[in-house]
C-alpha cells in the first residue's frame, strides 16, 4: 500500500518517524512518500529537514494518509488551502492516521464529525475547539473509528501504528514488528498513562 | 551543548529520530547537527533522506556524539576512514551515545575496550565480533561506562537518551520530558524484555 505522510513547517519529529520506522521496514507491504502543500524542503524546530512532493500530486491516490502533529498545527488549522486538500485526500484514502495534534487538522475538515478521536493530552483543550462535533475521548492511547485512527501525543503514534498493523495483519504480526525494534508496545488502546494531570 | 549525529547510508530511522525528538525539544540545552563522512544527502532504506555536513568539520568539536545503528553498519565497520574519524571525534567528545548496532562502529575503534556496552539483541552475535575486548552485556536496556552510553535495539535509544538526561539534569527532569512526549519510559537500564529468544 502507498503511504503518504503530510509534512508542514514545525511538524513533530517522532510523530513522523515513529510510524516511518514501523511501516518503512515492511517494504513488501508499505511504500512511504513525504508530501507538503508547497512541496520542497520542510523543516521543523528540531533542525530536521525533509524533501517533499507537492501534496496535489497525491491525487493519484494513497492508501494510507498520515497526519502528524507538532507546534506547526497551531498555524496550519487556519490554512484553508491545506485543510481543503487534507479533506480531499482523507476522503479518498483507504485509511487516515493522525498523531498528536494532527487530529486537530483532520477535525477541521469535518470528517471526524460524530466519530471518536483523541489527541495529545497537553494540547487537548485547544485541539477540541477545532471539531466541536467530534466525540473526543480524553483517556485513550489511540482510537479507531472505521478508517480513521487517531493517537495521543508523540510516542503514542508508535502504539497506534502497531495497533493498525494488528488490525490489518493480526496481533502476532504487530508483536513481531514491536519485538524487532525492541519496542515496549502498549497494546491496550484504552490504557492511557498521560490523560491525568 | 552541541550534539553531532552521525549518518551513513542505511542508518536506522528511529535510532536517529528518537534521540532527536528528546534532545531537540530542549533547545536551551542542546543544538543538533547531522554529519556524515562524505557530507550531503544521506538516505536509508525507509526512504528518509537527510542533508548532512562533512564529518571532518566536526573537528571544531561537539559535546555529544551520537552513533546510530541500522543495516548500514554491516558495511561501515569495514570503512577504515569512517572508523578512524569516529575514533577521533569520540575521543574528543564529552559524551558518546550509541544506539543499536552503532556500538559495533564504536567498538571497532577500540575505545570501548575493557568497558561495558550493549547492542541490538537480534544482531548481538555479530556486534561482539567487532570488539573482542569489550565487556559486552547481553541483558541490558542500555549501559553507562564513564562518558560512553550504549543502548539496545532501535527504541532503546529513547530510553537511553532519557537516562542520559537523568544523569545530567536529574531523574525528575527526564521524567518530565518523557511525560511531555507521552512516552512510557523504561527507567531501569538493567531491565531488558528483548534479551531472551
UniProtKB/TrEMBL annotation, chains A, B:
| CDD domains membership | GATase1_PfpI_2
Q: Which organism is it from?
A: Abyssalbus ytuae
InterPro entries xref list = Class_I_gatase-like (IPR029062), DJ-1/PfpI (IPR002818), INH-QAR (IPR052158)
Q: What is the name attached to this protein's record?
A: DJ-1/PfpI family protein
Q: Which Gene3D superfamilies match?
A: 3.40.50.880
Q: Which residue intervals define the domain DJ-1/PfpI in the entry?
A: 1-166
Amino acid at each position: 500500500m502507498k503511504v503518504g505522510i503530510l509534512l508542514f513547517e514545525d511538524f513533530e519529529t517522532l510523530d513522523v518517524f515513529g510510524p516511518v520506522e514501523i511501516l518503512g521496514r515492511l517494504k513488501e507491504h508499505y511504500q512511504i512518500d513525504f508530501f507538503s502543500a508547497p512541496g520542497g524542503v520542510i523543516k521543523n524546530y528540531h533542525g530536521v529537514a525533509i524533501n517533499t512532493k507537492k501534496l496535489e500530486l497525491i491525487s493519484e491516490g494513497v492508501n494510507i494518509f498520515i497526519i502528524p502533529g507538532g507546534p506547526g498545527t497551531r498555524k496550519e488549522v487556519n490554512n484553508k488551502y491545506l485543510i481543503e486538500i487534507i479533506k480531499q485526500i482523507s476522503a479518498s484514502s483507504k485509511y487516515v492516521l493522525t498523531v498528536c495534534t494532527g487530529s486537530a487538522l483532520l477535525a477541521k475538515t469535518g470528517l471526524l464529525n460524530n466519530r471518536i478521536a483523541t489527541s495529545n493530552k497537553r494540547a487537548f483543550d485547544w485541539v477540541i475547539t477545532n471539531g466541536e462535533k467530534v466525540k473526543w475521548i480524553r483517556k485513550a492511547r489511540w482510537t479507531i473509528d472505521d478508517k480513521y485512527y487517531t493517537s495521543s501525543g508523540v510516542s503514542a503514534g508508535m502504539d497506534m501504528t502497531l495497533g493498525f498493523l494488528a488490525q490489518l495483519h493480526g496481533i502476532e504480526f504487530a508483536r513481531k514488528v514491536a519485538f524487532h525494534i525492541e519496542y515496549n508496545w502498549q497494546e491496550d488502546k484504552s490504557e492511557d498513562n498521560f490523560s491525568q494531570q
